[in-house]
Every structure is written in structure tokens, then in C-alpha cells.
């Protein structure tokens, strides 16, 4: 069995003068829940459409479950469940009747167990109560759930979900998250595009970040976070002395937390008790700060602060949040919905 569920090399899509996807080298390991992130228009949907053989690539190649696409589309797609821009449900049929039609169109789906399969899929996405309702009376969220149910009709090795929580309320979003988790627990690889960092943070094992058609980062969630800077936060009434010590240790002052305040000429924040929160970047990637020296250990920082007479009332190491990393990589804000 190939180790990668999805693998692309130089995958490119050009629409007339627009380069929508530019030389993508994706590597999605089997068993991963891969969060495919990116701002609007960064090329996520186009990539997914190429992966599924819905649109032809301009250049490059893609393999799904070890087989070249779109050449092996007939043998590969039955092993892949997909939710892409809502399938064309018939509005005047019920949810159940729509799913039966889709199931009947799948020649790999045994007819005898169709009714059970459809009922199970509706149950998994929390739509049993509306199973017999006509789809034109469904809300956007319900249609989205029906699309998901359609992707879940058969057990699949790979699920490709384009923005599965679009149109869902917070409760629906939580349900989709736990559904993804349970699918992953069963060994299904899940490739999910999303705007929602919180979603990715909570369910994904791997992340890929798109920006303007290019894949600017990919790896495990830990690697992704680890690539960002770690900040040291010191709570102390002796802010000036603390800053001197941190600077002496080669740390770069005034990162992150202080940035906003620094614009107003303040380099730290003071609380009601008179303690200031001084922040500095430890091992900022690409920082010119400490001329390539290894960052000092946290205990060495605390010892140096104490030795210099700084009253350390709080000390914390804070890793970059996913959102900070995303902004660092794409230069764009993120649509953060918790
Ligand atoms: N059929 C098409 N014809 C022309 N341009 C297109 C077509 N499909 C997509 N594009 C362009 O390609 C770029 C990437 O679009 P795509 O839909 O893949 O981005 P996305 O990351 O999925 O965005 P969103 O999060 O808004 O869905 C956009 O600039 C879009 O306008």
C-alpha cells in the first residue's frame, strides 16, 4: 500500500491569464487528517477539483491512493468519498430519496443494503429527523449535512471535503469535527479544506497552507506550530531591568504581545498590581538577533533574571498560535471563527 493517500508534483492550473494553482507538491500521508488552509481565492477548491479529476490540470501530476489521476479515475473514485460544492440534489425529492439515487448510480454499492446504508449515513450527520423532508425545504446547513451523508454512503479509504462546515452553526460544526475524528479513528484518511483555524487545530494531524496559488507550508500540526516563534513572557515589577537581561541573552524584545503597544511607544503592559508583562522572542525563525547561537534554556533565562535582581512573578513560554503562523506565512488575516 502506498504511504501517501494524496501526492502531487508540480500540479498547476491556469485559467486564461490567471494562475490559480502554481506548482503544488502535496504529500498527504495515509491515515492523516490533513487540513488544507488558505484565504479566499488561494486555490483550494481548484486543487480539490483537479485531485478528483473534475477539472484537468494545466501541468504536473497527481496520485490518489497510489494511482495516477485522472487516468485511473474509474478505479480510484469508488474508494474516495467527496464533498465538493454540494452535489446536485433534486429539490423536490426527500433527503432519503436523493441519497438512494446517488447510491444507485454507484455500481459498487450493493442494492440489497441500500436502505440501511442511506439511513445510517443520514443518522451519522444528524439528519434522520429530516430524512423524509423535501430538500427544497432544507436549510443551507442541512444541505451541507446531506452532502456529507452522500460522501459517507460507502466506507471509503479517503474522504475529500471542501469546506464541510460551510453554512453550519457552531453545534453543526462541532458535530462535523467529531464525525471527522471518528472517521479518522476508523482509519480513513481525511483531506479537508477550511477557513476555520479552530476546526483545523482541533481535528487535524497535518496542515497545508495555500497562499495565492502556492503551497507555502505543509507538515504535521506540531511541525507547523514549531516553525513559528516561541515567546518568553515575564511578569515583573522590574520591567526595565528584565528587558536589559533578556537583550543581553540575545533575545529579541518587543515581539508579538508588545507590537501593538510598541506602536504607542510602550514596550510592555502593566497590570493593576504594577507588574509589567515583558515579552521577547526566543528562537524567532530568521531572526538576526543572536547570530545563530542556540537560544538559552528557559531555566537559564529565569536564573539570569533572578541573578540580576529582577523579581520574577510569572514566567511563560508561549508558542505561536496557528493564527499567528498563518498570518506570518500568507501575510493575510484569517477568518477566525471559533
Ligand atoms: N472556472 C474558473 N475560471 C476562471 N477562474 C477561476 C475558475 N475557478 C477558479 N478561478 C480562480 O482561481 C483562483 C482560485 O480559486 P479557488 O476557488 O480554487 O480558491 P479557493 O481557495 O477555493 O477560494 P475560496 O476559499 O473562496 O473557495 C481564484 O482567483 C478564482 O477566481
Automatic annotation (TrEMBL):
Family of this protein: Belongs to the ABC transporter superfamily.
Molecular function terms, GO-annotated: ATP binding
Stretches assigned to coiled coil: none
UniProt protein name: ABC-2 type transport system ATP-binding protein
SMART domains xref list: AAA (SM00382)
Domain ABC transporter: start-end pairs: 6-237
Highest rank taxon of the organism: Bacteria
SUPFAM superfamilies found in the cross-reference section: P-loop containing nucleoside triphosphate hydrolases
UniProt keyword terms in alphabetical order: ATP-binding, Nucleotide-binding, Transport
Lineage: Bacteria, Bacillati, Actinomycetota, Actinomycetes, Micrococcales
PROSITE patterns given in the database record: ABC_TRANSPORTER_1, ABC_TRANSPORTER_2
Amino acid at each position: 500500500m502506498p504511504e501517501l493517500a494524496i501526492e502531487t508534483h508540480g500540479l498547476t492550473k491556469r485559467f486564461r491569464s490567471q494562475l490559480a494553482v502554481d506548482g503544488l507538491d502535496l504529500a498527504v500521508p495515509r491515515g492523516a487528517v490533513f487540513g488544507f488552509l488558505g484565504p479566499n481565492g488561494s486555490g483550494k477548491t481548484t486543487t480539490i477539483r483537479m485531485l478528483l479529476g473534475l477539472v484537468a490540470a494545466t501541468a504536473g501530476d497527481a496520485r490518489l491512493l497510489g494511482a495516477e489521476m485522472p487516468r485511473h479515475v474509474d478505479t480510484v473514485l469508488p474508494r474516495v468519498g467527496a464533498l465538493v460544492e454540494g452535489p446536485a440534489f433534486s429539490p423536490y425529492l426527500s433527503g432519503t430519496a436523493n441519497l438512494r439515487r446517488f447510491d444507485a448510480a454507484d455500481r459498487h454499492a450493493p442494492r440489497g443494503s441500500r436502505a440501511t446504508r442511506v439511513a445510517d449515513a443520514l443518522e451519522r450527520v444528524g439528519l434522520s429527523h429530516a430524512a423524509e423532508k423535501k430538500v427544497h425545504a432544507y436549510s443551507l446547513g442541512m444541505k451541507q449535512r446531506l452532502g456529507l451523508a452522500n460522501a459517507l454512503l460507502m466506507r471509503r479509504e479517503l474522504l475529500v471535503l471542501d469546506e464541510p462546515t460551510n453554512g453550519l452553526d457552531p453545534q453543526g460544526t462541532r458535530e462535523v469535527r467529531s464525525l471527522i475524528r471518528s472517521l479518522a479513528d476508523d482509519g480513513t484518511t481525511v483531506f479537508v479544506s477550511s477557513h476555520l483555524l479552530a476546526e483545523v487545530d482541533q481535528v487535524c494531524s497535518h496542515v497545508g497552507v495555500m497562499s495565492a496559488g502556492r503551497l507555502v507550508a505543509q507538515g504535521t500540526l506540531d511541525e507547523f506550530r514549531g516553525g513559528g516563534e516561541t515567546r518568553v513572557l515575564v511578569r515583573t515589577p522590574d520591567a526595565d531591568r528584565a528587558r536589559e537581561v533578556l537583550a543581553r541573552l540575545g533575545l529579541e524584545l518587543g515581539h508579538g504581545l508588545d507590537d501593538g503597544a510598541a506602536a504607542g511607544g510602550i514596550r510592555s503592559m502593566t497590570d493593576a498590581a504594577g507588574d509589567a508583562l515583558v515579552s521577547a522572542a526566543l528562537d524567532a525563525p530568521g531572526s538576526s538577533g543572536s547570530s545563530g547561537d542556540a537560544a538559552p534554556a528557559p531555566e537559564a533565562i529565569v536564573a539570569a533574571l533572578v541573578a540580576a535582581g529582577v523579581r520574577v512573578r510569572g514566567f511563560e513560554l508561549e508558542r505561536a498560535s496557528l493564527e499567528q503562523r498563518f498570518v506570518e506565512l500568507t501575510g493575510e488575516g484569517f477568518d477566525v471563527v471559533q
